[in-house]
Amino acid sequence: MKTAMAADSKQERQRAGAGGELDPAALAALPLPPCPGVVGMIETLRRMRNDSLSFITRMSRDYGPVSRLPLGTETLIFLSDPDLIGEVLQKRAESFHKDPVTRKLEESLGRGLLTSENPVWRAHRKAIAPLFKRSHLEAWAAEMVQGSEAMVDAWQLPAAAAAGAAAAAPTQEVDVASTSLRLTLGIVFRTVFGAEVGDVSAEVGEAIDEMMEQFELELRTWRRFVPKSWLRGGRRRVAHARAALDKVVYGLIAARRLRPLEDGDDLLGRLMLARDESGAALTDEELRDEAVTMFVAGHETTAIALAFACWHLGLQPDLQRRLREELHAALGDRPPGAADLERLPLLRATIQETLRVHPPAYVVGRTALHDMELGGFRIEAGNAVLMSQWAMHHDPRYFPDPDAFFPDRWLNGLEQRLPKFAYFPFGGGPQVCVGNHFALMELQLCLASIVRRVELGAPAAAGVRTSAAVTLRPAVPMPMQLRLCAPAGKVAAGEA
Ligand code: HEM
Which of 35, 103, 266, 454 can bridge 68 by disulfide, Cβ–Cβ 3.0-4.6 Å? Predict the structure, then answer.
């Protein structure tokens, strides 16, 4: 769906020629995107502080597909048109750098894929992207399933009631948010470093949590506006956490070099074998930065989605029953494998819907490298351009009844009919999430492993308070009442 403004701008670009940029005089004549006036600004800033999600949505609703928010020395531009989002993330990606918030992560993550710019980013992306190809992913599937099955075993849940029993079987309360985090942390840890290293994932997880907590405090509170040298306490904690993390990670890198690199399916070994265009291998520092990046980018995002999928299934017993029937029909009583996934459409739709309603990455940003036209407006060099998955995924133009959790909407080819950037949980263009297939496979395998064995009881409350920081995560625990469900054959027999 295109706005008149976007259509006009397309004609403008055609006039401008292949580069898609207008000449300086034509550019200077363009208006700046609309922004709140003095009264609107007070309300906008209040909303920005109290509820960043409704703030993002209201910017597009109140000011159109391209809007502007001047904030002192920074100017934020909000896009809410799929074609324009595609212009920035894909077609004109070379005209943008990463946004300042992502770049700030460099202090903790180093220069991995998430934070680096060209030429480092291009060389590393070329080396890393092939490591996520299908055959490699399949080797990690067993890790994902074993982790989930072990988690269900460790819950020690009460069994389902015997057929014809008078009373319902008891349940056990489990916080699905924290258990999902432990599960995905273990999976990404063993995928990156290999299962043989023993479990120091908790140590690594704690150091990363500490760094991320300080990062978020600096991002979201008054600390953002004071010189770094004043934040001695916070800085010390980051330095301490980083030193602890480095000790473990460099130790794992050294240990990995002692084993033949071709042995095992771990990402670290494969990264050590990778060569850039000049034939150079990654240094230990580069390996450290990429390993830590995978950890941070890859565990919380997936955990959030898994927890929300369980939550919604608890709220919709009929949907949960249909999903379990699909799993039992395809798998019988055995755990799932990568090869089963294409025969499980409702499972995939449930994950797609979870990432739509609760996109763990709820906004991506870029910085404009030069003045340019976008949607008929002038965007200036240095402007931060923000594109929100949250706003697009809840836009009723593309998703009728957008707040409803309704996986069936994906079962009739919706994805093919949507404009490309109306649904983009993993971003898009050259910097699309390098772990997107990994994450989709992990989410499906983990959810299938849980639902085939566990009855997810209704959570205590229908809604969960979320916190929109680096990711859109639950702000509170997510307790659910769980018990084992009847094995495959018994469910089918019971229903017949
Ligand atoms: C549901 C889970 C996930 C979501 C929603 C997600 C989302 C995203 C998004 C939106 C981006 C693009 C950021 C941008 O354009 O600025 C991104 C980048 C990235 N993600 Fe993910 N991600 C997920 C899981 C993973 C996993 C499992 C891994 C690794 C194992 C991973 C590794 C990365 C890396 C390294 C980047 C940077 C890519 C680059 O700039 O070349 N992500 N992710």
Answer: 35
